[in-house]
# Entry
Amino acid sequence: MSIIFSRQCEYALQATSYLALKPAGKMTTIKELTKKLNIPYHFLGKILQNLTYKGLLNSQKGPTGGFSLGMPAQEITLYHIVDAIDGNDFMTKCVMGFPECTGKNPCAVHEKWGGLRDGIYSMLVNKNIAQIAKEMKKPEFRLLVD
Amino acid sequence: MSIIFSRQCEYALQATSYLALKPAGKMTTIKELTKKLNIPYHFLGKILQNLTYKGLLNSQKGPTGGFSLGMPAQEITLYHIVDAIDGNDFMTKCVMGFPECTGKNPCAVHEKWGGLRDGIYSMLVNKNIAQIAKEMKKPEFRLLVD
DNA sequence: CTAATTTAAGACAAGTAAGTCTGAATAAAC
DNA sequence: GTTTATTCAGACTTACTTGTCTTAAATTAG
Ligand code: FES
Ligand code: FES
# Structure
């Protein structure tokens, strides 16, 4: 089982992070992405297609085609990706699975979870693709190993 | 999709919390649990069976039979339940799905996630079934609504 | 001992997520 | 215009999770 994001979403985060390494507008093929990230080819194709539909990526067919970021890297946060793929249910649902999550009828960890949930949210919102690109250029960073 | 725990695990947390309300040793039937918690009968049966196998619950067949906590309530934490059903992969896996999660090859949110993950862990470890029972007796608390 | 009630067990069905395959559409390169 | 490389689209398969059904085993009550 994946942790909090679906497998699709994990792949989307990885692929988008990888795209962030490339100069703006530079097209990257699915083939390159699947090779570097070890993600099933057609599965990734559909995911990127979805992100393109949502406006987060650009795509171009034919030779020299591929995918690139659909907006300035500073404007794309991890939250955009997660929201596009998995939605934002985790922000409103009870972590113990009770039918609602409100202060009126709280579960045993409602308070604690509230803080953690907000922490996850800010983790996603405060990290944009431009930052990631910058961090990833550090030599120890994952994905740059080839 | 459930948030961080599987549906089974959510059910397990709810059912165990409910059992915590009862006097120690008092048997509660699946029927009562499914009715109060709105969980599919046989599905819950298997989950409780599993928790019994792992020693967290006691079971007894026949009339007056049912399930009760398998150890003193103070000794059962939410982490025990989660670990029994979903395991503890969330403690060691990368939240972005990369093959490993170490400081040597960190992903973009490794640091932040580390803190949040530890927060989730302590949320689970520091909440035992006895506390839950106490809190749940407050009138506004979920599950006591009937 | 018999009947009733409950968990135990396993097969099965339904639903969802993940992954595969094939061909069409598009666009560049020659 | 033809070839080639790529995304797009949809059907299909596989795997996993969730949920259902039926029967057996155990235990209590009478
Ligand atoms: S009620 Fe459970 S997290 Fe809010
Ligand atoms: S490497 Fe991603 S969370 Fe640690």
About this structure: The two ends of chain B are 27 Å apart (CA to CA). Residues 1, 29-31, 45-46, 48-49, 52, 59-67 of chain B lie near DNA strand C (CB under 10 Å from a C1'). The longest strand of chain B covers residues 57-60.
